[in-house]
Amino acid sequence: MRDGPHLSASRLHYSQATAAMASRSERSETDENAPGRAAGLRVLLVDDDDDTRDMLRFVLAQDGYLVDDVQDAESALEHLRKGGYRVVVTDYDLPGKTGAQLLRQATLERLLEGCAVLVVTAHSDPEDVGAAPVIHKPLDVEAFRRQVRGILETHGSAPVSGGKGAPAGAAAVTIVLYVHRDTPASRRAERNARQILGRIGKASVRFELRDVAEHQSEAEADRIVFVPTVVVKCTPPVWIVGDLRQPQALFDVLCLCGLARFGEFE
Predict the structure, then answer these.
(1) What CATH number was assigned to the domain covering residues 173-256?
(2) Domain ranges, ordered by start, for the chain
(3) In the chain, which end has fewer C-beta atoms inside a 10 angstrom radius, N or C?
(4) How does pLDDT run across 113-161, given as a tens digit for each residue?
(5) Are strands 229-233 and 173-179 parallel, antiparallel or unpaired?
(6) Domain 6-155 in CATH 3.40.50.2300
């Protein structure tokens, strides 16, 4: 398989990157099916590296997205408070705050409702990103395009982020735990899930326990491969494989869904 063009973790020269993508640009300008162009979707791009930010903006604009770009977390929060974004693409290493801290603050202010997020990082295991999708540097441009398109497809037709003053109420979210009831891992997963949800105490969370032997069609529809697996049917949906021995994973998903606040589960 031929490798696509890459963005290295070091600084790139924008004019060279533009020239390298010229043929793709010409095709994208005439592609009526470009995912961003079809819906006029707005993207907030956050990166303090000028060349990387310029390149990502160029790539996103090729696919028809309407891109606003900023260099730091505080500027990103100001833009998010105005609302209207469908996607936030943020670098992890930002001045002042990390990309994870940016997303955490935006979640606390309920600025990410209806908004998909993607974290770009050179770290192999970035801290505190929760359930946010991550793409690693060096970036493959085509993989980046596919991942942005994929989180939007998964995000479906959720309403655009409403900015500051968005409704405080959160719609009910269904959490489904698929198990084999006779296995220790499944019993641990059920116990841990109920413990976590009991401590959250949210009426807007609906919990369902499904044995894969009795719910084969539902398991297939939810793309279950291993058990136990939790499916959080928020926007976008999230899969957590395992017995929830680390409960923070599920709690972080609830925070990103607007059903809990960071710091509640201590």
Answers:
(1) 3.40.30.10
(2) 6-155, 173-256
(3) N
(4) 778 899 998 887 777 776 678 888 888 888 898 888 888 776 654 444 5
(5) antiparallel
(6) yes
